[in-house]
Amino acid sequence: xxxxxxxxxxxxxxxxxxxxxxxxxxxxxxxxxxxGRLGEAELTRQLRELYQGLQAALTAxxxxxxxxxxxxxLRGSLTELSRQRARRGFTSTETAVSVFSIKxxxxxxxxxTTEDLKAFVEISxxxxxxxxxxxxxxxxxxxxxxxxxxxxxxxxxxPVIKLWEGVVAIPxxxxxxxxxxxxxxxxxxxxxxxxxxxxAIIDITGVPAVDTQVAQHILKTVVAARLMGADxxxxxxxxxxxxxxxxxxxxFGDIVTKASLSDALxxxxxxxxxxxxxxxxxxx
Length: 284
Fold this sequence. Notes:
The longest helix has 43 residues, at 114-156. The chain is rod-shaped, with a radius of gyration of 31 Å. The chain has helices spanning 5-17, 19-34, 40-60, 72-87, 92-100, 103-109, 114-156, 178-195, 212-227, 239-248, 261-271, 278-283, and strands at residues 161-164, 167-173, 199-206, 231-235, 256-258. Helices cover 65% and strands 10% of the residues. The chain is α/β, with parallel strands linked by helices. The protein has a five-stranded mixed sheet with strand order 1-2-3-4-5, sandwiched between helices.
C-alpha cells in the first residue's frame, strides 16, 4: 500500500526539520543492537545515508512505494547496508532491525493528533517493506559469498605440485564431482602451459571411491593433458578401487597406472630419460 501524497509531504518536512535529532536517537538504538561491532562514526555514516535516501524518496514521491523511481537512491542505500552487514557477519535479523529502529524516533517526533497517528501507521508499513528488502538483499549477498568461498575451497583442494623438472602432480582428496573436475582440468592444463612439463601425475590416493562418473572425469582430464602434449600417469590405485574399476568394466586403455605416487614419479623420470638406481629410487 503506497504512502499517500499528504503523508509523504508531512513526513518529508518532519525529516528535514528534525533530522539531527532523529538520526541521533536512531543511531543510539542501532548501536545497542550491534553491541559495539560497528564504530560510532561508521554506523552514523551508514544510517545518515539511509536517512537521506528515505528523505529524498519522500520529497520526490507523491504516492510512494519502494518500487517507485523516486526510491531508487533509497533502494541503493538499503542494498549497500545489507551487503556490508552480510560481509561483516551480522545476521539478516540484525540488519533488518537497523531499519526498524527508526520507528521509535519517528513516533516521538510526530505529534498525538489523529493525522499524526495515521501518518505513523503508513510510514511503519513503508519501513516494513524496507526491512523485507534488506532481507532479500542480504540473502543475495550471502549466496554470493558462499559461492565465492566454495570456489576458493575448490581451488585450494586441488593444488598442482612440481615434483621434478618436467614432472607435475595433482593429488586429489575427497569426492570428485563435475564442478571440481572442471577445476582440476583447468589448473592442471594451466600448470602444463606455465611449466612446459611433458609429464603429469594424477594421484587418487585420497579419493574414497571411484565410480563411473569419477572415472570419466579422470579420463577427460588425461585426454585434455595429452592434447597439450603431456603424458599422464594415474597413481593411487588401491586394491579396493582396482576391484571396483574391474567390476564396473571401466577401461583406462593405454593410460599408465601405478599403485603409489612414488611409483608414478619413477615411471615419469625413466620415461624422461633419467636413470633411477635403487638408492635414488628409495629417496624418491
